[in-house]
Specification:
mainly beta, 3 domains, globular
Length: 249
Amino acid sequence: MKKSKYFVLGCLLMALILLISGSILGGFSQLKSTYFNSVNTSNNNEYEFAGINNLEIEVDASKVKIQEYDGSMIKVSSNWSTKIVNENNTLIIEDNFNIFNLSNLNKKITVYIPINYQFNNVDINIDAGDFEAENIYATDIEVSIDAGNFDTKKIIATNLNVEVDAGKAAIDLLDCQNSNFDCDVGDIEAMMVGSEVDYSYDVSCDLGSVNIGNYKTAGLSDDYSFSGGMKKISVSCDAGDIDIKMEVQ
């Protein structure tokens, strides 16, 4: 019985050694090649895409930047092994943390988008990384931030949903018909185009703090509604801070 146990343990140890040896000899480089359905345009892992309608970004600890440029193709540049694939006109970018990434914690992904590029859907999920964008134009935008940071200069959308756990989301200028902000213990900041009378909004706050227009939460478990214009804002805050300002005071 003991000999069988030692034999099984020996086989498992040998399998582990072979796995590590394979990765060192380039086995994971072969796996990496299956990640890309794109055009390799340089030695710096740069890829080009045409006909993209949707954008999905999911990263753990990378620094992601969306930058506009004077061109017609969407280009993606990464300094690390990243899943970058076009699936049915949806550009998917994924960089999940694992033990094989410990040698490079300064991972960067840059997405170059033509000026005024319009998406149908944009879905952004950031764990502990940093996201920075100049402008994002889309019909529907979903943003989920765990402990990372989301910072963008301008967003124009029909529907926007921002969820923050312990991180921070900041939007310098937001033009949106339906905006939803949900914060746990993190921070959300946004500047809305127009004035307060352009919006109707609902606020639900537990232990946190909410400032929106001329309203500020008064205490624990505070709920408030304001009826103004056709644009809608929904705010839910647990123990974090949400600050929604208006462009025109």
